[in-house]
Amino acid sequence: MSRSSLLASIALALLAALPSVGAVHAQSPAAAATPPVAAPAAAEEGEDAEMQRKLPLPRFVSLKSARVNLRVGPGKDYAVSWLYLKPGLPVEVIQEYDLWRRIRDSEGTEGWVYHSLLSGERTALAAPWLKGKTQATITMHRSAATDGPIVAEMEPGVLTKVRECSFGWCEVEAAGRRGFVTQKEIWGVYPDERF
């Protein structure tokens, strides 16, 4: 086998190992682009590599920017599979590779975003699994009790800022109103999570 044939064979083998950059599906390409080992993470608030600290996985964060590209792999050379246009949207960080974070949104879509496009600010969506169902609302109470006075009724999918969570209740703010919702009625916090 000649040297040029050998080089051509190696090049073809390398090309076959790379992920496709043609049409992409929003759900599954991230699995094909998963790097073998996760590296230490920088804090989501945009700290540089020198300010790295280990944060737990998985964890909830929110989108910082009004335009966030979701990529099929951890790098700018990977295709964009989705474009988020809503700052503050909660996402779950499920993996890290260098300064890239693999995230999952409330609908289960997964992909990679650059760390500086994420914020440590906690937000949540009011029961996104109830979207499209008639008469579905999430009750915001003045106190952390089901018999507490009602502050507001939220439709499924309303974005809230989460102030704190404990004992099954979270203090949230939405559209200028503050109150408490049960932790199981929002997406963006873990069951029994306290902060």
Largest sheet: 5 strands, antiparallel
Instruction: Report strand %.
Output: 35-45%
Structural class comes to mainly beta
Enter the CATH topology name of the largest domain: SH3 type barrels
Radius of gyration: 21 Å
**Which overall shape is indicated by the principal axes computed on the Cα atoms?**
elongated
The CATH level-2 architecture of the largest domain is identified as Roll
Number of domains: 2
Please tell me about this protein's structure.
InterPro entries: DUF1058, SH3-like_bac-type. The protein is mainly beta and 195 residues long. The protein has two domains: 22-121, SH3 type barrels; 124-187, SH3 type barrels (Roll). 10% of the residues lie in helices and 35% in strands. It has two helices and 14 strands; from the N terminus they run ααββββββββββββββ. A five-stranded antiparallel beta sheet has the order 6-5-4-1-7, with no helix packed on it. β5 (100-104) and β6 (110-114) form a beta hairpin. Residues 1-45 and 48-52 have low confidence and may be disordered.
Question: What labels describe this entry?
Answer:
SH3 type barrels, 195 residues, 2 domains, mainly beta, disordered N terminus, five-stranded antiparallel β-sheet, 14 strands, elongated
What is this structure, in a nutshell?
By secondary structure, the chain is mainly beta. 10% of the residues lie in helices and 35% in strands.
